[in-house]
Specification:
3-stranded antiparallel sheet, alpha+beta, 43% helix, 4-stranded antiparallel sheet, 10 helices
């Protein structure tokens, strides 16, 4: 990211003195100006995670909240390593268990989730890189040009982070005689107001897959909630395509999908 782009952000903001502190911190971490490919790979992975199973929010004009939602303790350790590799700190790791009852079997299911929060400076950086703040279904998402033009290793890292959150695992359909290997679609729910821009967002993600040699198409359906639409990214289930997908997409920060795939 050019220095001038960041300076404009801080000069325009009413709390420029506060943000100048962020600027100096990012400068010290060598995350202003020309960023090394190694660091961009990690940042892209985190960006993919925050855009799928994470949350960015702006608290007033002074603070960006950055929180990742994960399924297992091992996932928290993996993401903590990446955050600290960049020089940021993890402010908290919380575990929450909820219970729900299956409609058919009436069986009680225990679901555990981990929340990893990082310092606001990382939240600001991820936002500037294209991270969506607030409720994602009610926002215009956009894939920034820097990612579209990035090296394949950076695109791969973003997709691995994104699929680790919202993507489906590779599985076998045992109902068919040939026991077909499949991967289900990646879903995005959006309100009608933002449907066009979020369709473009998913099309841009499909193009990232295409850049890596992986075929994927986009479909648009009505959601059960009539106020929303479902946008689906559907990887081709051709054998060569699934093999390419399994070789390149790592399901970052989701060991469960790695194991089951």
């Amino acid at each position: 990211l050019p220095d001038d782009d960041w300076k404009l952000l801080f000069i325009k903001d009413d709390f420029k003195d506060y943000y100048v502190e962020y600027y100096q911190r990012l400068k010290k971490l060598r995350l202003i100006g020309k960023i090394s490919v190694d660091k961009m790979i990690v940042l892209s992975r985190l960006l993919g995670a925050i855009q799928s199973d994470g949350h960015l929010s702006k608290r007033g004009l002074r603070c960006y909240r950055c929180r990742f939602h994960l399924g297992e303790k091992e996932d928290t350790e993996e993401i903590k390593r990446d955050i600290e590799y960049l020089g940021f700190y993890v402010s908290s790791i919380n575990r929450r268990t909820t219970n729900f009852t299956e409609k058919d079997t009436k069986k009680i299911i225990h679901y555990t989730c981990y929340y990893v929060s990082a310092e606001p400076c990382l939240g600001l950086l991820l936002h500037r890189l294209g991270g969506t703040t607030g409720r994602k279904t009610c926002q215009n998402k956009q894939l920034k040009d820097w990612l579209k033009k990035a090296p394949s290793s950076v695109k791969r890292a973003f997709l691995s982070g994104y699929q680790g959150g919202d993507g489906s695992k590779i599985s076998v359909n045992y109902k068919l005689p040939q026991q077909q290997v499949i991967i289900k679609e990646t879903k995005m729910s959006t309100s009608h107001e933002y449907e066009a821009s979020n369709m473009k967002y998913m099309e841009d993600i499909a193009q990232l897959f295409k850049d890596l040699g992986i075929k994927a198409t986009i479909r648009n359906y009505k959601a059960k909630d009539l106020r929303r639409r479902l946008i689906l990214l559907c990887p081709s289930v051709e054998q060569e395509n699934l093999l390419k997908y399994s070789e390149l997409i790592d399901y970052s920060y989701c060991n469960e999908k790695r194991r089951k795939s």
